[in-house]
Design brief:
Layout (H helix, E strand, L loop, with lengths): L2 H11 L4 H8 L3 H8 L7 H10 L12 H16 L3 H18 L1
């Protein structure tokens, strides 16, 4: 997939609007839209900051498999949010523990 599609998928998986994202990275909504539509591409330093913002590994947004990962994360997030609170907290704790093991 393209950088723009991967960026949009990551933003949607994080449930952040273009407006919110633009404020966080200090860019205009128009700029974000042009990136997501692959009209323009940010410089490498900005791409790194975006990947950090979404807690993605470096190079992820340029990866052809990134979109499928973002969809998977989005599906997992939706499933967790549908759980009753005690189970939701338990699922979040499990994911945090797995993340610590990986890192």
């Amino acid at each position: 997939m393209t950088f723009g599609k991967n960026l949009k998928a990551a933003r949607n998986a994080a449930k952040i609007s273009r407006n919110e994202f633009a404020k966080h990275i200090k860019r205009s909504v128009h700029t974000i839209k042009s990136w997501e539509l692959d009209r323009h591409r940010p410089d490498d330093m900005t791409i790194g900051k975006i990947e950090d913002f979404f807690y993605l590994e470096r190079g992820y947004l340029s990866s052809p498999t990134a979109l499928s990962h973002a969809k998977l994360i989005g599906s997992l997030s939706c499933a967790i949010n549908k759980l009753p609170n005690p189970k939701r907290q338990h699922a979040i704790a499990l994911i945090e523990n797995i993340t610590h093991l990986i890192n």
